[in-house]
Amino acid sequence: MSAHVLPIQLASSWFLIEACHVREVLGAEPWLPIPRARAELPGVVVWRGRAVPLVDLAKILGVETAGAPKRARTLIVNHERGVAALPVDAAREVRSIPESELRTTQDALVPYATRELDENGEIVPLVDLGSLLSHLDRTSGADGDGGG
Amino acid sequence: MAAADPQLKFVVVGAPPRALAISAESVRRVLPGHDFSGVALDLTLEDEAPAPDSSEHVLFVGPAGAAVALRIRGELELLTVRSSEVLPLPALVGRPARLSHVIAPRGVPLMFVLDLSRLDESPTAGSPWQARSVQPEI
User: Nearest CA of chain B to the CA of A74: how many Å?
Assistant: First the structure.
C-alpha cells in the first residue's frame, strides 16, 4: 500500500499533506481580511464563485513567518464540512510513498503531524489535514454548516 | 435567454479592505452621531486609522420597532452590485464575525456584508463588534 502525498513548503520547512484533500493548486490569490479574526482563519478567498475560508497553515504549524499569509501558491482543499484555502510558498508533484516508510511521529513538535518521512536524515512531517480542519471547525463557534 | 441577474443595493461604511456593507433596504434611519444617545453596536475598529472625514453616524437597521443602532465613522456610500457578486460566507468564518456575505466583483473579494439577523446576539469571544453606550457631544 502507498500513500499519495503532496509536498508543500512553508518558509524553509517542508511538510506533506495527503493528496486526496487537494482540489486545486492556484497561484497567489487575493484575499480579504476579516475584522478582528482569529489568526488561524484570517480571511476569505473566492474560488469558483464561492467564498472559501483562508487557513493560515504556517501559523497553525508554528512556522516562523512575518505578518499576513501572502504566499506564492494557494491550495484549495476539501474537508468533511467544506472547502478551505491554504497559502503555501511552494508545492511539488504528488508522490507515492510506501506506507511502511511513513513512521509514527517520534515527538509532537509539529501540531497535527502523526506520521513522518525520513528522507536521508531530513524528517518531513505528514500533516493530518482532516484533523486540523475539523478542529478549526469545532472551535470556530460555527455550530452549523462548515467551511464552504 | 439567460435569466436576469437582479441588482442589490448596500450602504457602505468605510473604505476597502475594511469597508462593511449593510443591506440598504434594512436601513431605517441615519442620525448624526452627536444627535444620538443610547446603546449602539460599535462598528468602528479601534486599530483603524482615522478616516479623513472622521464624522460619526448612527444607523438604525432591522425591522421597525426592533431596529438595532449601529455606530459608524466616516461617510456613507451607496453601492449597487449584481446578486451573483454577493457570495454567502461559510459559517466557519462568517458566524463568529457576524458577517453573512462577501461582495466579490469579478471574483475578487472586496468587502463583507454585515449579518443583520445576528446583531442582537450576545457577543462571543470572536465577535468583532461590541455594544457601547453613546453619549451626545456637548
Answer: 15
> What is each CA distance from B123 to A96, B95, B105, B126, in whole angstroms?
47, 11, 31, 8
- Whole-number pLDDT of residue B53: 58
Nearest to B113 by CA among B131, B93, B137, B134: B93
- Residues of B with CB below 8 A from A137's CB? 92
Query: What value, to the nearest 5°, has the Cα angle with vertex B69 and ends B46 and B66?
Result: 150
Query: Does residue A146 surpass a pLDDT of 50?
Result: no
Give tens-digit pLDDT for A4-31.
Answer: 999 999 999 999 999 999 999 999 999 9
- Alpha carbon distances (Å) from B110 to A44, A60, B45, B86, B114: 10, 26, 18, 10, 13
Whether A145 has its CB under 8 Å from any CB of chain B: the answer is yes
pLDDT tens per residue, range B57-74 = 899 998 878 888 998 888
CATH superfamily entry for domain A2-139:
CheA-289, Domain 4 (2.40.50.180)
Which residue has 462577501 as its cell numbers? Answer: B102
A137 contacts B102? CB cut-off 8 A: no
Checking ipTM against 0.90, whether it exceeds it is no
State the nearest Cα–Cα gap between B38 and chain A, in angstroms: 24
Contact list, A45 vs chain B (CB under 8 Å): 109
Give pLDDT tens digits for A104-116: 987 778 899 989 9
Does the beta-carbon distance from B107 to A49 stay under 8 Å? yes
Alpha carbons A34 and B115: distance in angstroms, whole number = 13
Angle at B89 between CA A23 and CA B62, to 5 degrees: 170
Cell of B109: 473579494
